[in-house]
């Protein structure tokens, strides 16, 4: 195709709109420009081609035979473009928004808010994939991941959703009257940990301690960890946001807090997002901001 000799796209669009409506004013309205702009583009197209496309001798503009010939071509061309664009835009519209997240985040933060999303956006279906595993964000797969960390992961787009530090908590019934606990002391207590994670042993190792083999460690789904901690069944690593009310009410004791600014991030691929994904991500941000 000889791209350099093709007329400007703006002129072809103006001509196609006129050919469709057979009226300068209506063509301008269709393209959201003035009728004068349409007239200018039509004259520019004729000048470029060196062909008279419109008969201006009467009260109204009509296409010449050359104009009719070009009109059939541009209408076919723009029609094919419109059909292809429509296919791409609507492809996957019926596919649910696929979200990867930890079970603890789903249970403690997202699930209580989901009824509001369904009320506001009944036409958007969601698939929640609770897993601590990192996932690849590929077209046709996971659309959004919600992950905890510093947000500096390579090859993806990440945006802070909820800034909250990691804390070590336990129920007063497990701790007894003792108020000071070193990492080595905590290593001798039973720990509860989300299945598929090593947060407990990792935290202890970072603080120069190792879990006592006789203390016991229980791995269970993330949505059950906090229930077990509140019942005095063990110590756990979690984020402060999930247990803030428990700490204030005295149901849990905060034993250590991480001195950093990490948090939960919305993680998406560095590719264009479907409309439904944009809607869900925007809703997440509004929820985090309390809007």
TrEMBL record:
Domain of life where this protein originates: Bacteria
Ranges of residues in domain HTH lysR-type: 7-64
One GO BP annotation of this record: DNA-templated transcription
GO terms assigned for molecular function: DNA-binding transcription factor activity; sequence-specific DNA binding
UniProt xrefs under InterPro entries: LysR-type_TF_proteobact-type, LysR_HTH_N, LysR_subst-bd, WH-like_DNA-bd_sf, WH_DNA-bd_sf
Keyword Transferase attached: no
Alphabetic keyword roster: DNA-binding, Transcription, Transcription regulation
Entry's family note: Belongs to the LysR transcriptional regulatory family.
Designated name of the protein: LysR family transcriptional regulator, glycine cleavage system transcriptional activator
Native organism taxonomy: Bacteria, Pseudomonadati, Pseudomonadota, Alphaproteobacteria, Rhodobacterales
């Amino acid at each position: 195709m000889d791209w350099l000799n093709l007329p400007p796209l703006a002129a072809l669009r103006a001509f196609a709109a006129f050919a469709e409506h057979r009226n300068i004013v209506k063509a301008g309205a269709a393209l959201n420009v003035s009728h004068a702009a349409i007239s200018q583009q039509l004259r520019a197209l004729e000048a470029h081609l060196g062909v008279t496309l419109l008969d201006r001798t009467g009260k109204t503009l009509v296409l010449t035979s050359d104009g009719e010939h070009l009109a059939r071509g541009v209408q076919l061309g723009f029609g094919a473009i419109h059909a292809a664009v429509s296919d791409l835009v609507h492809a996957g519209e019926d596919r649910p928004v696929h979200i990867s997240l930890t079970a603890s985040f789903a249970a403690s933060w997202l699930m209580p808010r989901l009824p509001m999303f369904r009320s506001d956006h009944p036409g958007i279906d969601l698939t929640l994939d609770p897993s601590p595993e990192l996932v690849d964000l590929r077209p046709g797969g996971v659309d959004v991941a919600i992950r905890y960390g510093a947000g500096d992961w390579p090859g993806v787009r990440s945006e802070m959703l909820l800034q909250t530090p990691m804390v070590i908590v336990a129920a007063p019934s497990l701790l007894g009257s003792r108020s000071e606990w070193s990492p080595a002391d905590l290593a001798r207590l039973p720990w509860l940990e989300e299945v598929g994670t090593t947060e407990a042993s990792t935290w202890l190792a970072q603080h120069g301690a190792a879990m006592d083999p006789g203390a016991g460690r229980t791995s269970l789904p993330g949505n059950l960890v906090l229930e077990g901690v509140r019942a005095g069944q063990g110590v756990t690593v979690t984020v402060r946001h999930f247990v803030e009310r428990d700490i204030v009410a005295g149901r849990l004791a905060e034993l250590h807090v991480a001195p950093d600014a990490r948090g939960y991030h919305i993680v998406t691929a560095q590719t264009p997002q479907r409309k439904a994904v944009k809607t869900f991500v925007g809703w997440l941000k509004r929820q985090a901001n309390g809007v």
